[in-house]
Amino acid sequence: MSILLKGGVVVSVHGRRQVDVRINGEKIVEVGTNLKAKDSVEEDVSGCFLLPGFIDAHTHLELNNGKGSMGTADNFYTGSKAAVAKGTTAVIDMATPSKGSSLKECLATWNHLASGNSSCDYTYHMSIIEWNPSIKKEIREMLEAGITSFKMYMAYDNLRTTDGEIFEAMREIQKYQGMLGIHCENGDMVNEMIAKFVAEGKLSPHYHPLTRPDSVEAEAVERYLMIADLADLPVNIVHLSTKRSLEAVKRARAHNQKVYVETCPQYLVLDDHLYDEPDFEGAKYVCSPPLRSISDQNALWEGVINGQVNTISTDHCSFDFDGQKTIGKDDFSKIPNGMPGVETRPELIYTYGVTTGKISLERMVGLLSEDIAKQFALYPQKGVIQVGSDADIVVWDPQTVGVISATTQLQNVDYTPYDGMQTKGSAKSVYLRGQKVAEQGQVIVENQGKFIFREIVTN
Ligand code: URP
Ligand code: ZN
Ligand code: ZN
């Protein structure tokens, strides 16, 4: 069956055009003005924008924190439903092996968790949490299996590797033109600061951001970029959150390094005063890096506006307040790190970025979809509305208003960090590879997501 989306405005990073879009099967087959219905089912999308399905390049729908599985509140089933309902048609989840396991075993585990349980398409960044000859050999095998991007950590004792190991991994990834993203925080410094505050009996969530000040992130960013320069590898920085880190990126770029920067909605619309919420509610915002100052927030927006920040993904990693965050009631260092967000990213960025005039809708399409697709070898299958691409289309209604609420959200977690925030604009309907899977913020057909096999195309 073919579908004709009629009367909408198609948006890409290059501009917007009032054109009709015909979908046949999983693909976009025609884009043009005044297309005839022929035997297509016609859908009137006038008054709406047609945006390429959003891609979230940083989710932990399933989590292995290096100590085995730490059940997050969401999983592939619930998290992907929340994602697609609001316009995210693909996620790149952080697949993380346990110590001693192979990358292949981890890939099989993540495929088992996602397959048949995902309402949006999915692929993974493969985490490298230790380095040895067999992991080295597996880098190439991951690329052959369609995994072109990797993740490493400079903090978290169960996940981090040494600088030498990062360098070795970079050299191997470089051979195949893969993409590496790193969690940049100086793990030793974090440990020192936590030990200091705990010894002083300073145990409330207020102290979480003080253990991870901007220097902890900026030092790691600078070091990471210097190592990448030695390895001659273009790299990604995940969840960059401070002005000082952006300055380190600017320095590297001035030396002609290719650096991609991701930030997240929480660093753009929330700030560190929230750690002082009464009744332990500050724990809801415990994530790493932590929420930052208004001055950092302004610098990040500036980076989003002027192109220093390339992409916005969520770092969705949800833990219930009751029973999970409260594990750290008497000691902030025991609060599980992470916040939900896969559902709310499009509405937050549209509301706080586009409707405030900070960024254009074209830029939002780049930040949430097209530029992510290009960076992670998903383009032009994903990230664009053009003939031949997957028909992942968000019919975006700019007129709606809403309020984010824990009681109405689809994420399977007992709070949202954005509770009570007003939004403008939302996904009226969502097509995943040609099938309408969501309408008015609700999933109408679930579990249609497929694994996306990625390939590095070299010119
Ligand atoms: O606090 C966070 N961000 N938790 C998820 C894991 C990570 O650091 O990305
Ligand atoms: Zn991280
Ligand atoms: Zn993360």
UniProtKB/TrEMBL annotation:
Cofactors demanded by this protein: Zn(2+)
Entry's EC annotation: 3.5.2.2
GO molecular function annotation: dihydropyrimidinase activity
Pfam family, one: Amidohydro_1
Residue ranges annotated for the Amidohydrolase-related domain, each copy included: 49-436
Family of the protein in this entry: Belongs to the metallo-dependent hydrolases superfamily. Hydantoinase/dihydropyrimidinase family.
Originating gene: hydA
InterPro entries: Amidohydro-rel, Hydantoinase/dihydroPyrase, Metal-dep_hydrolase_composite, Metal_Hydrolase, Metallo-dep_Hydrolases_sf
Calcium is among the record's keywords: no
Organism, as annotated: Candidatus Enterococcus ikei
UniProt keyword list: Hydrolase, Metal-binding
Keyword Signal applies: no
Protein name per UniProt: Dihydropyrimidinase
